[in-house]
Amino acid sequence: MFKKYRFWGIAAALVLALTLAACGGGSEEESSDGSGDSADSGDSGDSSGSESVELGESELTIPYVAWAGAIARTPLVKQTLEEVGYTVETSQVDAGSMWTSVASDDASFMTASWLPATHQSYQEQYGEDVEVIGEFVAQAPLGMTVPSYMDVSAIEDLKGNEELGEATDWTITGIDPGAGVMQSTQDAIDTYGLENWELQSSSEGAMLSELQSAIENEEPIIVPGWKPHWKFAEMDLKMLEDPEEVYGGEGDRIEAVAHTSFKEDSPAAYEVIQRLTEDYDTEMENELLVAINDGGEPADVASQFLEDNPDLLEKWTEGLGE
């Protein structure tokens, strides 16, 4: 019975094929090279939106440091990833823990790698286990920073400067002790022979509070500084010249760095980061930083940015996820 049906089915298919060939004229030649086949043409056409890149591992963790730039960009990355179907947890940690968790694959990726200078020691320790997956900012200069009204222009001007030392209690007001810029500042103290000076650890928030207070009273203060940061837009500051390039010369790159397995584990997330970082730059970060400094919650600022820029969100997420 089944053989009989199969015979008549094959015969019918042959008749249909001969009929189409006779009616189609020149289409027989086109079909011989596959160009007239709708399935083939779908595979070879524009793939945007036609085939989704899979989520893979859908639960992601992003560790970040409590620095202004990381606080601004991390919610933007998180919310974009959530748009394509990921569940994203962010965790505020120190720089050492950030690198350790990514290198051990306990966390997915970081948004605040500063290379080649600031995080050089971490890169040397964990470089074989991680890879750069995108660049947020191409040049992010760092250096000892002072209010512009202070009569110093270079780091070496601090050496043996009794008047300034006594006015500041020979203290450079720093941030969290695990930060790369703190290590660079300690290296600068050693390189420039600033034996009388001491680097005081605190947090970025505490440092900024002391900086603002000093400026309001037009008092001297020295802090580690970096760009992009809202303080350079809101306060009249200058970085001290660093001829020995202890802080890395023209500046570090701020990059997204992931474990080497990240692309395979979460392919759509990898693609999101690559797309997002192609557009992200200092101007975009400054826009987020200023909005946050004006009182906006970082998550709300990120949401508003994505709402105001639907074309970017579509570009970053099209064809990705389930």
Automatic annotation (TrEMBL):
Molecular function (Gene Ontology), one example: carnitine transmembrane transporter activity
Gene3D superfamilies listed in its UniProt record: Glycine betaine-binding periplasmic protein, domain 2, Periplasmic binding protein-like II
Domain ABC-type glycine betaine transport system substrate-binding: 59-307
Keywords, comma-separated and alphabetical: Cell membrane, Membrane, Signal, Transport
GO BP annotation list: choline transport; glycine betaine transport
Superkingdom, taxonomy of origin: Bacteria
Signal peptide: 1-24
Cellular component annotations (GO), alphabetically ordered: ATP-binding cassette (ABC) transporter complex
Compartment(s) of residence: Cell membrane
Protein's recorded name: Glycine/betaine ABC transporter substrate-binding protein
Comp. bias regions, Low complexity: 33-53
Region of interest called Disordered, as start-end residue ranges on this chain: 26-53
